[in-house]
Design goal:
Radius of gyration: 18 Å
Number of helices: 5
Number of strands: 5
Distance between the termini: 25 Å
Strand order of the largest sheet: 1-4-5
Helix content: 40-55%
Largest sheet: 3 strands, parallel
Length: 179
C-alpha cells in the first residue's frame, strides 16, 4: 500500500483490542496523475487530480489497490465524497474524451464538446442530455461493480460504502442507493 502505516499488523492490533477497523479512502483523487485520464468539466476544464472511471487502466489500478486494502483484514472500505462527477470546478463533470466518445456512440452523432455542452446544460430534455446521464451512471455502476468484484476475491464479507455528495442525487446518472 501507498501508506506503510496502514497494514495488516495495525489492523490486527486494533481488532485484537476490540475495534472494528475500516479504511476510508479517496475514490478518484490522485495527486501527481501517473498517466490516467483526468475528468473534465462540461466547459472543458481539465480537473487534474481527479481521474475518470472511463479510463480502464485507472479502474484496473483502483481494483488492485482495493484488493491490497482488503488483504489487510478491514471490515469496511469507505469511499470519500469524491465518488461523484459534480462540482470539482466551474461546472459539473465529466465530459472527457471517453465520455464524449460514449455519448456519440449512444446518440449516433459526432458531436464536439462545445456542442454537447450546449445540449447538456440548456434547453429541454434531449437525447444528448439523456446519453450524458446514461454514460455517467453506467461508468459509476461499472466502477462500483469492479470494486465489489475485486473485494469479493479477497473477502466477500467486507462491506463497501460511500460518502454521499449533492451531485450523486441528480447529475451523476445514478444515486447512492443504487451504488
Amino acid at each position: 500500500l501507498a501508506d506503510p502505516h496502514f497494514n495488516k499488523q495495525w489492523v490486527k492490533f486494533f481488532q485484537d483490542n476490540g475495534y472494528e477497523v475500516g479504511a476510508w479512502i479517496w475514490t478518484f483523487w490522485i495527486p501527481d496523475n501517473p498517466g490516467f485520464r483526468n475528468m473534465r468539466s462540461i466547459t472543458g476544464k481539465e480537473i487534474k487530480e481527479f481521474m475518470c472511471p472511463s479510463d480502464e487502466n485507472f479502474v484496473k489500478f483502483s481494483t488492485e489497490y482495493i484488493k491490497d486494502i482488503a488483504k489487510c483484514g478491514v471490515s469496511i472500505i469507505q469511499f470519500d465524497d469524491d465518488f461523484r462527477y459534480g462540482f470539482f470546478t466551474d461546472s459539473p463533470a465529466c465530459l472527457c474524451d471517453g465520455h464524449i466518445a460514449e455519448i456519440n456512440r449512444i446518440t449516433g452523432e459526432n458531436s464536439a464538446r462545445e456542442e454537447l455542452e450546449k445540449h447538456i446544460t440548456s434547453g429541454c430534455k434531449n437525447k444528448f442530455r439523456n446519453a450524458y446521464l446514461k454514460v455517467n451512471g453506467d461508468l459509476f455502476r461499472n466502477f462500483a461493480k469492479a470494486v465489489r468484484d475485486a473485494v469479493n476475491e479477497i473477502n466477500p464479507d467486507i462491506r463497501i460504502s460511500l460518502c454521499s455528495c449533492m451531485s450523486l442525487w441528480d447529475i451523476d446518472g445514478t444515486d447512492a442507493y443504487e451504488l
